[in-house]
Write a structure and sequence with these properties.
- Helices cover 43% and strands 14% of the residues.
- The protein is of the alpha/beta class.
- It folds into 3 domains: 7-222, L-fuculose-1-phosphate Aldolase (3-Layer(aba) Sandwich); 240-400, no CATH class; 410-586 and 621-648, NAD(P)-binding Rossmann-like Domain (Rossmann fold, 3-Layer(aba) Sandwich), CATH 3.40.50.
- The strands form 3 sheets. The protein has a 7-stranded mixed β-sheet, with helices on both faces. Strands 14-13-12-15-16-17-18 form a 7-stranded parallel β-sheet, with helices on both faces.
- Helix 6 crosses helix 9 (202-222), helix 19 packs across helix 25 (623-633) and helix 21 runs parallel beside helix 22.
- The longest helix is centred in the last third of the chain and has 26 residues, at 501-526.
- It is elongated and about 100 Å long.
- Bound molecules: zinc ion (ZN).
- Residues 116, 130, 132, 165, 193-194, 289 line the site of zinc ion.
Amino acid sequence: MNSLWSDAEAAQFSGPLGPRVYSSRLLGRDKSLVLHGGGNTSVKLREQNAFGEDEEVLYVKGSGWDLETIEPAGFAPVALGYVRRLAGLERLSDPRMVNELATHLLRAGAPAPSVETILHAILPHRYVDHTHADAVLSICNAPQGERRVREIYGDRVVVIPYIMAGFDLAAYCAREFPKQAGPNTIGMVLLSHGVFSFGADARESYERMIRLVSMAEEHLASKGAWRVSPPAAAPSPVKRDEIARLRRAIADCAGFPVVLAANDSPKFLGFARHPEVARISQRGPATPDHVIRTKPLPMLGRDVTAFAASYRAYFERHAARAAEKKTMLDPAPRMALDPELGFVAAGRTAKDAAIVAELYDHTIDVILRAEALGGWQALEERHIFDIEYWDLEQAKLKKAGTPPAFGGEVALVTGAASGIGKACAEAFLKRGAAVVGLDRNPAIEKLFTRPDYLGITCDLTEVRAVETALDAAVKRFGGLDMLVLNAGMFPSSQPIASLADDAWRRAMTVNVEASLIVMRAAHPVLRLAPRGGRVVVIGSKNVPAPGPGAAAYSASKAALNQLARVAALEWAKDGMRVNTIHPNAVYDTALWTDEVLAARAKAYNLTVEQYKRNNLLKTEVSSRDVAELAAEMCGPLFAKTTGAQVPVDGGTEKLV
Ligand code: ZN
């Protein structure tokens, strides 16, 4: 591991916190050091208070900030003298500790200081860096981890046995550090947890961290335990229905829908097929820092019932402690290892699932390296339990609040690259759903860049293309809950007497057949939706009120309408709802250029403004209006409605 320090880069970070921000970001850049909000850093500064008196202030990473992207505002200033004194207390509950830290902040609106703040305070150095480096964890979690750590580092580090983060750990370190520290000490190893480095300036502290972690890496390399990879494995074809069934089972177990991301990359698949997978994956996480997001153990195979039973047994082994903590049993797995599917991560959002996968990616390295050193040993189960049901974590869960309407759900929108389809994608994303957008236009792929969106270029009239797109969607998000059939085309106006065969066939193919292809292919997955599948069909005012010259369009939309009605009849027994929206005069779509609009308005002897509002309410209907209704139709408001046809047209005189 090399130092990434650059004087030129460092110079761009000014102010008293500049060097602290810069070297924190350097640590954050390397995912083998810190992952997703893990790790923390601090600096001790002297500042003047309102009376002009000098005060010692500890700036420590605040919660909710990631080292990679931290800014000066991400550091919480606390009164150093007071916080240091806390370490000398006989005892202090963790919630009380959090309160003491929060009430000794020196800037209104600062983020909550890290729960490891007191640890930073007691270390007698200006800069302190803390990571959960993979290499150090591999060594701690191998046989005779402590002996190895002492052998590698000698008097360079203070070694602390495993104690859960919080007041007890800080108080222990405050007592132990002065006993062990000497002139050569540049850091501190917390066994099975992570490593601290410190120094007089940002660069010294950072480069000592790099040195300490490099020493761990060199030790692993010298024992043939650095370059490890699971046995090679070739992926099996995607099993859409099986992934969706697994997702449904996990959601039933959790009590809420989840996004499920399957990953069959060679590393994950190889690990899932590792001959010792049952032994090495069932001992616990690599670091306590990962417990909350991943739960203690991955599920093996696809049998959720068996997993829940084993998890219940785990819980019952701690029944007394659980009763004391008044905690709830949560048997839902956050991840599974399956020899065919590979690694499967569950989360309440696509982002959460991605985080689980990234954490486990590093866990695999740590496990395999510790294995190569003689045998992976995870943290003892009682410690894992303590963290999982830690007061502070429970408090965080309670604070998390209500999830968004479509949290954990997946919506597929056809024709989503523009117009109503794009507005639908936005409406569903806004409500917390993961969205799959399909369109012939390749712009669909870059429509949004966020972890909960997948855009696929797809010709919906091709059965195989639709199957492939569904495979990708289910592999990425685990299933489908909602389907918006929006893709369609509007052929140029032609009276029946001169209607071209091609125009007729094209309208029928795109507006009816493509929707049938998508519905038929999606049905087996859609019916596994935890809250029941929902389909919204974007119809047209032309269904109840066709127009002259629009035979192909009107007939195709009418056929689509019948298709939706039959689906409502056939799919109701599976709790699936199918409803139709009939928009009219939605002019903010690519179809309606300014010129077309002007020409049409002129034909009716109206101004463009009058033409746009040519309805009973004299109102303009936008793509967003249609999209919002489509999303609401998938929500609780329409929970008891199926087979309905709702106009969004400002009111049409002939149809009232
Ligand atoms: Zn830590």
